[in-house]
Predict the 3D structure of the following.
Amino acid sequence: MNSDAGIGTLEFLVLAPILLIVLCAALQMGMWYLADSAAATAARKGAETGSSYQSTPAAGAERAESWLADISIVRNPHVSTTGSTSQTVRITVDAEAMNFLPFLDFSISRSAEDVVEQ
């Protein structure tokens, strides 16, 4: 009789959950990175729009919100113009990355600032 019978199955039962967790974590980090990039892009687009000639910070926030509306990987976005002055427009995007690991929360906060065109 071979004393190693069934050891392959046992090894698989031990290693498969570990590999699955590592794979899910890698995919989740990729989704967080994409959502972070999308939030940064929305903030940048909003700051550019809000700082253009005869525009307002509110127009920049509206532009950021409309751009994020088409991006499904960013959940619950909140766009703010807090920190804007008469000389600069600051757009801040706070959101959550889409996740499939229920026990983790991936919050995102990205800002962009631009000088108002005179």
Observations:
- Helices lie at 7-51, 57-68.
- The chain has a mean pLDDT of 90.
